[in-house]
Specification:
Blueprint (H helix, E strand, L loop, with lengths): L14 H15 L3 H11 L3 H16 L8 H4 L4 E2 L8 E2 L5 H31 L3 H29 L22 H22 L9 H20 L3 H26 L4 H32 L24 H30 L14
Antiparallel strand pairs: 1-2
Length: 364
């Protein structure tokens, strides 16, 4: 270097970007096509789904009729109207998969767009620390989604006879093959959300926590229950389960966001107490009611025929209800495990320490 040359200092890259770039570089060094695919999706969570969504919409606009197969991605399939004066209801079929796939793409785009262009700006303005920035964005998105899904699910419940856990109507007049437009929209979008969450988890788009295995098991069991309840005409029960789960997640994600904002401990601890109360009430009491009604009320003669006739939509018998119970109880076991972690946090609050998530991030 000559004497007259002035060495310029490189502009420091924000630490949050360094962490993301480091994660990408480490992922690229790993061999295997699966890793390369996962890394590509990780880097293009806005562009990739947006391109596919645009292609589907443009393909539909070429011939905007129900006969165009791309209409199945954009609109509900299998409308049924018994007479011109009746409300249109919907059945089920293979084309529902297309609608689910479309909403997986939409939710992938919405998630990343919301995190990067809305929540991140707010987080930087609020002065959230670099190490908590990504977690704040993730939990902020879950808060927004669960607030919307709980509101929609509660409204749909209120329109049916099983509103506010009138459990016997989960089984009366089974099978519930036909669905209102709002219920079918809600159910398939929820299914898409949980399938997308499995993608986020398995591709490690979110940094894993210590309970990665338990969380993966939870997502897989949840998707099996959603798919099974949809195929076998237990959508009323599925609607109630969605509401019990999503309502608690509102308070959990909100409490975490407040923690990342580093508000006074008295505020975060009070929010944790509210979350803990809602968890016990919804995930153990109300969800326990769903388990109880499946065991005790599902096959009562005054509720339904309780026969095995799959061709006509009858999947509920005295023995098949135990298959449903098996999935529900597995999910409850996982929630009992997480409740034990909640009790650890509660002990920290009682002993004068503030609420911390005991499922801390795995060290790199």
């Amino acid at each position: 270097m000559s004497k007259g040359t002035i060495k310029r200092k490189s502009k420091p890259i924000p630490e949050w970007k360094n962490e993301k770039e480091k994660y990408i570089i480490l992922a690229k060094k790993k061999a295997g096509i699966w890793t390369r695919v996962a890394n590509y999706i990780f880097e293009h969570q806005i562009e990739l789904p947006l391109k596919i969504i645009s292609a589907i919409i443009l393909s539909y606009l070429v011939n905007p009729t129900p006969q165009n197969p791309f209409s199945k991605f954009l609109f509900l399939s299998y409308p049924i109207q018994k007479s011109s004066s009746d409300e249109i209801q919907y059945g089920k079929g293979y084309w529902d998969i297309a609608y689910i796939v479309f909403w997986i793409l939409v939710l992938t785009f919405i998630r990343e767009f919301t995190m990067q262009y809305l929540l991140k700006s707010f987080a930087l303005y609020a002065g959230i620390k670099t190490k908590s920035l990504t977690r704040f964005m993730e939990q902020g998105y879950i808060f927004i989604y669960c607030l919307i899904s709980t509101s929609a699910g509660s409204y749909i419940m209120s329109q049916g006879p099983y509103g506010y856990f009138n459990t016997k109507y989960l089984w009366i007049d089974y099978p519930h093959f036909l669905m209102s437009p709002s219920l079918k929209h809600y159910y398939l979008i929820q299914f898409a959300f949980w399938l997308q969450q499995i993608t986020v988890l398995l591709l490690k788009i979110e940094k894993p926590r210590k309970d990665f295995v338990e969380m993966a098991a939870h997502h897989i069991i949840t998707c099996l229950l959603i798919g099974g309840s949809y195929l076998f005409n237990f959508t009323r029960m599925g609607n109630t389960v969605f509401v019990t789960m999503d309502f608690t997640d509102i308070w959990l994600s909100f409490a975490k966001c407040l923690k990342y904002l580093e508000l006074p401990s008295i505020i975060t601890d009070m929010m944790f107490v509210i979350f803990m109360i809602t968890w016990i009430y919804t995930r153990h009491y109300l969800y326990g009611l769903i388990i109880w009604t499946t065991y005790a009320e599902s096959c009562l003669p005054e509720n339904n025929k309780c026969i095995w006739d799959p061709l006509n939509g009858y999947w509920l018998t005295w023995w098949s209800k135990y298959i449903i119970l098996f999935g529900l109880v597995l999910l409850q076991i996982l929630m009992v495990y997480w409740f034990s972690l909640i009790l650890r946090v509660a002990w920290r609050v009682v002993t004068g320490k503030n609420a911390e998530d005991t499922r801390s991030d795995i060290e790199e």
